[in-house]
Amino acid sequence: MKRFKSILVGVALAEGDRLVSERVPSASEEAVARGTWLAKANDAQLNFLHVLPSWAANLDANTQVLIQNDHGQQTVRDHAKEVMAKLVHQAESEGIAAESRVVFGKSWVEAIRQVLRKHHDLVIVGAKDTSQPRPFLAGSTAIKLLRKCPCAVWVTRPTPDRILHSILVAHDLRSVGNDAMELGCSLAKIHHAKLHVLHAAEYANYDNIFPTLVSLDSAEQYRQNAEKQIAEQLAKFHLAHEAQVHFSTRAPDLAIWHCIEEENVELLVMGTIARTGISGLITGNTAERLLPLLSCSILAIKPRDFQSPVTLEPHG
User: Fold this and answer.
1) pTM value?
2) Beta-sheet strand order (sheet of 267-271)
3) Which PANTHER family does the entry mention (predicted)?
4) Could you tell me if 174 and 68 lie in one domain?
5) Which of 52, 61, 95, 277 is the most exposed, having the fewest neighbouring CB atoms within 10 Å of its CB?
C-alpha cells in the first residue's frame, strides 16, 4: 500500500489540569502509533503537530501562570517542543523521516492550514476520552476535521494489539466510494482482516418510510448492479478472508451502525462528499447522525475536488 506520502498526526498533550503533560495521553499515543505504522508501510514523511491555545503564549511550564517575555524560564511551548522532539527521535530511530511543529490557535484550523501548506494526504487524530462509547462529540476537533479537512482523516480508537481484525467499507458506488473500497481492501490485506462491504440502497425516488413505492423488478435490478460492481472491485484483491457483502434498504446511517455493532467492526472506511453547494459538509446528513454513535475508528476519504472552507492566513 503506497497511498499516503505525507502524514500529519495531531498530538494533543493536555491531560488533567496540565496544558502539556509529561507523557503523551493515551488517545494521542494511539494516533502516533497508527501514524508511525502507516509511515513505515507507505515509506511516507511523518509530521507531528501540537496546537496550544492562543492565550497560553506566555505561560510558565511548571506553574502555568503568566510570565513576562525574556524571562529565561521554560514556557509551555518550550515544554511541548521537548515532548514533540522525543516523538520525532522515536520515529527517526525506526527509519522514518519525521519532523514536528508547535503552534498557537484552534487545533482543527491549524491542522487544516498545515495540510494546505505542506500538502499532507492524511491526517490522524485520536478520539478524546476513549473510555466513553461516544467519543465523537459535536463541535470536537475530530468532527471539524472530518467536515472540513481537504485530505483523508483517520480518527483512531485503541485496539488491543493495534492490529485490525474487522474492517467495514461503506460504499456509495460513486468515485469516492471506489477510493474508499480500494483503501479498505489494501488495509484488510495488510492486516489479514475480515472485510465487510456495505451498500445502502439509493433508488431513484426512493423513500425509506415507504419502500414499497419501488417495484420488485427495479429493486432486484438495482441490487444485482450494485453487487456486480462491488464484486468486480473485490476481484482485484487477493484477500486472506473472503469479503462479506451487505446490501441494505435501511437508511444509510442505520445500516452502517447496525453492521458495525453486529460484526464487531474496528475500522469504518467511507467516502465523504460536499452537498447543497456548501463546502465541508460530509455525506449529507448521514455522517452527522452517525458519528456520535461510533465506537470504532473511522477513516474518511474526500472527493478529489473537495474544497475546504478553511484558507491560509495572508502571511501563512
Assistant:
1) 0.86
2) 98-104, 45-52, 6-10, 122-126, 152-156, 297-301, 267-271, 166-170, 194-200, 244-248
3) UNIVERSAL STRESS PROTEIN E
4) no
5) 277
Domain-located, residue 146: no
Looking up residue 60, the CATH number of its domain turns out to be: 3.40.50.620
Per-residue pLDDT of the chain (316 residues; tens, 9 = 90+): 557 999 999 999 988 778 888 889 888 999 999 999 999 988 999 999 999 988 877 676 565 544 444 445 678 888 899 999 999 999 999 999 999 999 999 999 999 999 999 999 999 999 865 445 454 444 488 888 888 899 999 999 877 777 899 999 999 898 989 999 999 999 999 889 999 999 988 765 555 555 556 677 778 888 999 999 999 999 998 888 999 999 998 888 889 999 999 999 999 999 886 543 334 444 444 655 666 678 899 999 988 888 888 888 754 4
Q: Is 38 contained in some domain?
A: yes
Helix (H) or strand (E) run with residue 100 in it: strand 98-104
